[in-house]
Structure formats: structure tokens, C-alpha cells
Amino acid sequence: MPVPFLGLLLVTPALLVVTLLFIVPLASSITGAFDVDGNFGIGNFQKAFELYSSDIVFTIVIVLLSSVLIGLCSIAIGGYLTLGNNPRAVSILKWLYRWPLFIPFIVVGQILRTFLAKNGLMNSMLMESGILTAAQTISFLDWRGIVIAFVWKQTPFVTLLIAGAMASLDRAMIESARNLGASRLRILVEIILPQVLPTLLVGLILSFVTMMSVLSVPLMINAQSPTMITASMAFRINAYGDYGVANALGVISLMTTSVVAWIHLRQTMREHR
Amino acid sequence: MRKVCYPLVALALTTSPVLAEELTVLTAGDQNMVDYVNEYLGPLFESQNPGTTVRAVGTGPGDAGSQKILERFDAQAQANVGTWDADVAVVHEKFAGPMVEKGYLDAYRGDIENGKLATGANSKMALGTNVDGYVMPMFSSQTALAYNPALVPTPPRSYEELATWAKENPKQFGYNGIKGGASGVSFVMGWIYAFAGDADKLMNGPFEEAETAKWSDAFASLKDFTTNATLTPGNAGTLDMLSRGEISMGPVWVDMFYSWKADGKLPPEMKLVLPAPGMPGQPMHYVIPEKSGHKDLAEKFVNLATSPEVQAEGIVKRFNWYPGIDAQLVQSKLDAATWDKLFTDISPEDLAKNGKSFPIAPYNTAILEAYERQVGN
């Protein structure tokens, strides 16, 4: 058998899987978004904006804010893992920070629902220790709960990526900066960070896309209005059996993630040039 | 001996699945619905019909669960499947109508002995669609306001009183909006019944587009009310917050309320009130697909499930639901204490007067969308 033909044959199963399970459903939901009672139209999008404009804004703001916080937290953790002076603290942190990686989103939602409630575990502990009184407690089960859930769950993922990148940097540069008297914060910001920036960006983009698609956390923590697009899509289907508007919301969400995917692609192209 | 024995055993093992019939029951609703079939009704049916097995499949809580069953039927109808993979389905009232209209269901009520016990209006009409003959009500459930008597000594008896009370007690009333479960939806429907005119028309039809224009004021006041209330995450979320003392009142499903109390998840002193002019409740219906592979067995199953004995022991005593069939027949099978437990807080008279049904399907959709437009967004 000629080699090019063999190669094509080897690729076929993968290609079929991608086409049948990914491209066909994607295409059908995109065309479904423009299907208004069997005709082509943008009625679904008009309705989506009319009813859910605040949900769309809410989702983008929440996910962006979470991404920023995830970035800051993972830089802090990664930085300490690379520059920490106390070997015991470093190894404990290294062991601890990955845990949330293995916990599904739905469980995170469940844990935080009891933890962040007005009379939940967190406020009870603060009250026991005398920091708060019963009248001062507030519930975090709103947009803050979603942000906390996202940051808690996605920080380890990004940290894993950038801690790896930081570990593979040339130590000589860090050591020489240290010998010249640079503080650890300065080394992190001026020497390490610029070198791991592409990795950080990739981690944040992947987190962004993941967070856009999470349904369980908003459902568990804040299924009110405004809520995340995913919860509205589920509601549209379950309460009205209306796939048109749900698909339109899906396309809007897809366009948002396309923007960051485009940044990601540009980044990779530049690296491979 | 062995030569004969082994082939016989092998034969028995390989042929027994053919003799045994498997009845597949799809059920929408919370976990308690699946538990009901798996722990109570299924074993009872199997013991009465040796050799059969009952397989219960839960399709998820709320309307989403019934929507999944409807889509499953849609798919099999479109694919022209000869025998469908479900023999009995338990669906919400809202979905019985579309299933009948699409011709998916068998008109079996005349064929079963207990069919005549379904005397309620809800076994004839389902949110404006004639379903007479196609459904048997499994149970009726009702929403009501649960409250903490320690914080609310005299509960509001009507929606007007509730609105005043909520203004005086900011953030003490909690409900789950309309995206987190039907108890919140029910509260909103009750609000429209109370403040936007004609409840009878909304419940019985006919649908008129002009009617929807009358709701704006009611939604404007609901928006005010909502900013002054606490929003809870889901049906269970309302009960959670009530038990933790974070809210002192909120709409709940009556059966869930009693079950949580029985399980110790809710303090025993919590009470219920059904405010005037009323809040909706709904039945869950047993339906049999036209293309079920085991129709006779399925009819037998529903007949058992709607017998006065099972309704008394299973529906009322174990799961705290209101009976689906004629209540008097069920009452005679139970001791007074068990029966009275159902009506501790809400008397049968209150239930008859203030237990409403949901609006007919087009109004239902219109109210939900109007809520999203005017209160949500």
C-alpha cells in the first residue's frame, strides 16, 4: 500500500470521530440558532438579548474577574514554589495546592453552598473566633460565591502550568539577581514573570473557556437573575423546550470564547515562527 | 447424572431472561420519585407478579425530567421504532398534554379496574388540554408558604398581607426565582392570580394575547417585592435557608416539607400556610406509551399503583403526598392519625379553596417570559 494512502487510512477514524461527534452537532446548533419556526431569521438572538442581556454581561464580567484573580493567585503560589526559602513550607504548599484539581465542579458547588451560606461553616467559624457577630454575617451565595468557586477550582490548574514553566527557567539568572541584592518580589515580577507570560496566558485562556461552560456551579450557588449564560440555556430548554433561544445563547457564548481562542492561536503561531 | 444436570442448568440460565418480563418505568422528579418505585412499588409489583422485574429510571428533577421523557418519545417516534423502550412513564402535568396531542400515549384508563377511581378534574384536563382516558394521577402535590413560628407568630393569610409583611421584614422572605425549581414558579403564578385579575381564565383558558398586557403592574410590584426578598438556590435551598434561620418564610412543596421534617433536616416547629387567593399545585401522571412492549403488564402496574391500598400506604403514609385518586377511598384505608398528619397545617377546606392549578400552557409560558423580561432582566 502506498504510504500517503496508509497515512490517510490511519487518520480516518480520528477524523470521523471529530466530524460526527463535534463538527456535526456544532453546526446543527449554530444553524438551530438561526431557525425561527422553520425559517431563517435572527428572532432567537433578539429574544436572547431582550431577556438575557444582563446574564450575558454578568457571565463575561464574572469570568474575566475570575481569570484575573486566578492569574494573581497562581503567580503568587508559583512564585513561592520557585523562590521560597523554607524548604518545608515549599513542599507542604506543593503537596496542598493541587487538591482542587481532582474535585469536580458540582462538588465544589456543593461544598461552597454549605460553606459560604449566611449561617454556614465559614461565618460560624468567624463568629466562634469572635471576629464577627451574628448580625454582621452576610451570605456569599451570589456572584461572589461563583467567583470564589471558580478561583478555588481553576487556580491549581494554572499554577501547575506556570510552576512547571518557572521550574524550567535558567536558575543562574535568578541567582545572579539575588546576589546583586534584588528582593524576591522584584525577581518574580521583573525576571520570572516576563519569561513565563506565554504559559500563564495559555493557562488563563483554557480556564476562561472552561468557566464559560460550567453549569453546575451557577445552578448550585446562584441560579437567580442575573445568572450565568449556561443556567439560562438550561432553563430555556427545560421550561420552554425552546432550543432556538438556547442555541442563540450558545452561539453568543461561543463568540466570546472565540475571541480568547483567537488570542491563544496568535500566541502559538508566534511561538512556532 | 452430571451429563444431564449441567445442560439443564445451562438451559435454565439461558432461557430464563426470555420468560421473565422486564417493565421499564421512566420517572421524572426528585430522587424521592425513583425511591418510591425502587423501594416500595417495584418490589410490591414483583412479589405479586413472580418472574417480572421492574426497572426504574429517573430522568431528573423538575420540568427538565419530563422534558427528557418527551424528547425520548420524540426521538423514537421520528425514528419509527416499533417497540419503545419505556412501558410506563411518570410525567408532570405540563407534559401530559403535548404527549397526548402528539399521539404518543395509549388511552388505557378505561381498561383498568381502578380507572374509575380517578375522579378529580385533573385526570380529564391538563393545563388546558383534554387528556381524558390517557392519564392516571399518581399523586397531587401542592405548594404553600413554610414559616418559622418563632420569628413569624402570625403568618400572612393572603398575598396582600404577605406583601405588607415582607416590606416590614426585609430579606426575611426567600424564594428561588423561576430558574431554580417549581416552588418559586408556583409563588410567581400565585402572585399573578392575586394581583393581575382573572385566575379562572388563566387556569381554564381560553388563551387571549390581550390578557398578557394586564400583568405589567403586578410584575412591577413583584420586582419591588423581589429586591426586598432573599433569593435562594432551588427548592431545597429555600428549606435549607429556613432551617438555618437565614430566612423566616418561603414557598415550598408540601410533600418535601413533611419529608424533610420526618428526616430531621428541618426543625419540627416549622409550619405551613396556604395564602389566599391560592398557590398552584400539580399532579404527577402515570402514562403508558402507545408502543410499549408490555402493555398488559404496564396496565397491571398502574392499576396496582392507583389502588386505594397503595395510595394509602405508599403515597400518603410513606411519602407525604396528597392522594391522586378519590381521597375518601384512601382515607378509609388509613388510621386517623396518619391522615390528619397531611392536614396538620393546611385544612382540607383551605386546600379545596386555595389549592389552585397552574395556568394553561400558553399563559404559563407567557408569565414565565414576562417575569424574565420585567423582573429578571
UniProtKB/TrEMBL annotation, chain A:
Q: Where is the ABC transmembrane type-1 domain?
A: 56-264
Q: What is its main location?
A: membrane
GO biological-process terms attached to the record: transmembrane transport
Against PROSITE patterns, the record matches this protein to:
ABC_TM1
Family annotation (Pfam families): BPD_transp_1 (PF00528)
Entry-linked InterPro entries = MetI-like (IPR000515), MetI-like_sf (IPR035906)
- What are the protein's UniProt keywords? Cell membrane, Membrane, Transmembrane, Transmembrane helix, Transport
Note whether Transmembrane occurs among the keywords.
Answer: yes
One GO CC annotation, please? Answer: plasma membrane
Q: Does the keyword Transmembrane apply?
A: yes
Where is it located?
Answer: Cell membrane
Q: How does it sit in the membrane?
A: Multi-pass membrane protein
Q: Which residues cross the membrane?
A: 56-83, 95-116, 146-167, 187-209, 243-265
Query: Record's family?
Result: Belongs to the binding-protein-dependent transport system permease family. CysTW subfamily.
| Protein name as catalogued | Carbohydrate ABC transporter membrane protein 1 (CUT1 family)
Q: To which species is this protein native?
A: Hoeflea marina
Q: What is the lineage of its organism?
A: Bacteria, Pseudomonadati, Pseudomonadota, Alphaproteobacteria, Hyphomicrobiales
From TrEMBL, chain B:
Q: Which domain of life is it from?
A: Bacteria
Keywords (alphabetical) are:
Periplasm, Signal
Pfam families linked to this entry? SBP_bac_8
Bilayer-crossing residues are none
SUPFAM superfamilies cross-referenced by the UniProt entry: Periplasmic binding protein-like II
Instruction: State the signal peptide span.
Output: 1-20
The record's listing under PANTHER family reads: PROTEIN YNJB
Q: What is this protein called?
A: Extracellular solute-binding protein
Where does this protein come from, organism-wise? Hoeflea marina
Q: What lineage does UniProt assign to this protein's organism?
A: Bacteria, Pseudomonadati, Pseudomonadota, Alphaproteobacteria, Hyphomicrobiales
